[in-house]
Amino acid sequence: ELAQGSVGAAFALAEAEGAGLYAALVSLAAGMPQVDRGAALKLANAAAGRGQEARRDLTLRLIDLMLVRLARAGAGAAPAREAAEGEARMLARLSPDAAAARLWAALQQDLTREATHALAVNLDPSGLILDMILRINQTAADILARR
Asked: Residue 101: CA atoms inside 13 Å, Cβ hemisphere, count?
């Protein structure tokens, strides 16, 4: 499901424990807007430091994918299958309608642009990822406050 039908991507995700990382992201998002800051920090720190570039890139790709899946769910195109346990429940809760879908889509575009810039100027990846998680948390709070 995470590889979106690509055998090569599926192999790469399996090799890098991508399914477990995505499950951790889904678990983190499921608790939003009361984000588990300890878990968020652990996730961010795991992608920092020398030799962790592949983990950093995978984390960024999976955050991007989760945001895309949130946007699609709110737009009425929820994934047919869960990519991690509890994902369907999280998607339905955090992206209940088209207004939420627009917020997630805009956040995905903003965070992708900011991550590209941050990597180009060698900003701290753990700070980048933690900031992304906190912005996702704030968006979740904004969406749930409307209900």
From this structure: 13
